Amino acid sequence: MNIIAASFFVTIIPILLQKIGIHIGIEKTVVSNMPLMVPGMVMFNAIRDTLNGNYQAGWNRIAEALMIGASIATGTGVALAVHLI
Distance between CA 85 and CA 83 in Å, rounded? Predict the structure, then answer.
């Protein structure tokens, strides 16, 4: 839930600033802030655990990384949907 809220606010704040007259690049702002939330280390650890033979931990971490990615996409999608309304 925290990741959904974070990605929503990272996307909606530049949109709101653009609407009140502060001209910033929405795409550049959103794209520059999203990599901070991407689960790179979780995916790296999932691959490491799987290669070390700890399949259960590997699959758990892969599931966690996929859920984080889906949460980021959900928050960003909701903010962009609000923008289009």
Answer: 6
**Residues in CB range of 78: below 8 A, 6 or more apart:** 4, 8
**Residue 73: what residue type?**
A
- List, for residues 44-64, the tens digit of each pLDDT value: 999 999 999 999 999 999 999
Residue owning tokens 């996307």: 11
pTM of the model: 0.83
Amino acid at 79: A
The encoded tokens of residue 80 equal 């962009």
pLDDT in tens, 8-27: 999 999 989 988 998 888 88
Measured between alpha carbons, how far is 41 from 12 in angstroms, rounded to an integer?
A: 26
Alpha-carbon radius of gyration of the chain: 16
Q: Are 24 and 14 in contact (CB under 8 A)?
A: yes
